[in-house]
Amino acid sequence: MTTQTSPQRLKESIQDWAAELGFTEARVTDTDLSAYEAGFERWLEDGCAGTMGFFQRHGLMRFHPEELVPGTRRVLMVTRDYLPPESLGPSKVLGEPALGYVSRYALGRDYHKLVRKRLAQLAQRISESVGPFTYRAFCDSAPVYETGLAERAGVGWKGKHSLVLNRSGGSWFFLGALFLDIDLPVDEPVQPHCGSCTACLDVCPTGAIVADGVVDARRCISYLTIESHDDIPESLRPLMGNRIYGCDDCQLVCPWNRFARKTNDTDFHARQGLEAPDLVELFGWDEPTFLARTEGSAIRRIGWRRWRRNLAVALGNLPTGHPRIPAALAALQGGLGEAGDQVDRHIHWALARLAR
Predict the structure, then answer these.
(1) What is the rounded end-to-end Cα distance, in angstroms, of the chain?
(2) 4 — pLDDT class (breaks 50, 70, 90)
(3) Does 247 appear as a known binding residue?
(4) For [4Fe-4S] cluster 2, which residues are the binding ones (predicted)?
(5) Is residue 11 classed as helix, strand or coil in its secondary structure?
(6) What is the pLDDT of residue 3?
(7) Which residues are catalytic?
(8) Is CB count within 10 Å lower at the N or C end of the chain?
(9) Which distant-in-sequence residues (6+ apart) come within 8 Å of 92 by Cβ?
(10) Is position 271 annotated in a ligand binding site?
(11) What average pLDDT score do residues 332-347 get?
């Protein structure tokens, strides 16, 4: 790389270009994540990763950006707001058992590709200014410890719910990382500002936040509905309510999210009516309908069978006397034998619950 621009001036230009591309934060850190390794190893030893074997397979690679992409000297961490404007807010959806709750990050288009695409565009702008250089863009797509990098870069701090919190934007944003072989000035970390607040720990429906910043995936609704291929433990099913894809409770109660920004990016606005969908109607989707309605969405990755598994649990959680119970019973009975033994086990559980 050849350039006559000072590192500080180049960094300022990169931040300006990042803002033009829709990123809210753009801050720089080095590659030293050694302080996070011991905590991660304890988390694995305690079994908190559940069945997510990729954590063990990748080992400590996520804490060594310079090994994942040889030559990396700096990491540019960016944020992109995703909280969509809605006619019916999250708390109201959670309060109506006949509606399905989808984590707000998944209402729009799949963020993985969108954020990486914008980061690639940013890298092109840098290249036009300084010449060819080595880079690689990530967004929840490789063994990269984005939370630690965001902390090191001063984007925010790791909240007690384990998500990155920003004083001016809360936590409703995606993180992206651009690995660079350019030697840019680094930013300073910020101090944590959770204080004595335990709102996220107290509200977690399944008690998955087992310590400050530590989530036991085996109890986490996001893990159970998205990552896990197994049967959902019967003891946890009643606690899931109407959450069918992910869970936002810890974010909804966080005081810092009073400052969260609604996204102007239409790619992250709700699609296919999933901001407040009727559970019975969703359960009626056959596999072709599911694939068509979730095209371009992060939801598609769980597949139709796990989608139906989750819906069966939510339907089984309809409270006694709810007017949608007759329709739910008919839908569940009609769905037996359509999506495999695992789904049938969850349907039978739901039918038994509703019969009581």
Answers:
(1) 70
(2) low
(3) yes
(4) 204, 220, 247, 250
(5) helix
(6) 46
(7) 140
(8) C
(9) 276
(10) no
(11) 97
Task: Record the tokens describing residue 126, joined without a space.
Answer: 């840098």
Selection from 209, 212, 245 nearest residue 228 by Cα: 245
Q: What is the 3-state secondary structure (H, E, C) of the chain?
A: CCCCCCHHHHHHHHHHHHHHCCCCCEEEECCCCHHHHHHHHHHHHCCCCCCCCHHHHHHHHHHCHHHHCCCCCEEEEEEEECCCCCCCCHHHHHCCCCECEECHHHCCCCHHHHHHHHHHHHHHHHHHHHCCCCEEEECCCCCCCHHHHHHHHCCCEECCCCCEEECCCECCEEEEEEEECCCCCCCCCCCCCCCCCCHHHHHCCCCCEEECCEECHHHCHHHHHHHCCCCCCCCCHHHHCCEEECCCHHHHCCHHHHHCCCCCCHHHCCCCCCCCCEHHHHHCCCHHHHHHHCCCCHHHHHHHHHHHHHHHHHHHCCCCCCCCHHHHHHHHHHHCCCCCHHHHHHHHHHHHHHHC
Across the strands, what pairs with 137? 178
What pLDDT is attached to residue 182? Answer: 95
What average pLDDT does range 18-42 have in this prediction?
97
Residue 2 pLDDT > 60: no
Among candidates 190, 181, 178, 183, which has minimal Cα distance to 152?
190
Per-residue pLDDT band at 22 (split at 50, 70, 90): very high
CA–CA separation, 217 and 116 (whole Å): 26
The pLDDT of residue 5: 78
pLDDT at 87: 63
Q: Take residue 331 and report the two structure tokens written for it.
A: 């839908």
Global pTM reads 0.94
48 labeled part of a ligand binding site: no
Q: Is 32 annotated as a binding residue?
A: no
Residue 101, token pair as written in the block: 């709750």
Residue 1: pLDDT over 80: no
Structure tokens at 42: 């304890």
- Domain residue extents for the chain: 7-86+108-180, 278-356
% pLDDT > 90, the chain: 94
**Does the annotation place 116 within a ligand binding site?**
no
197 is in an annotated binding site: yes
> With contact defined as beta carbons under 8 Å apart, do 190 and 154 qualify?
yes
Q: Report how far residue 20's alpha carbon sits from residue 180's, in angstroms, rounded to the nearest whole number.
A: 20
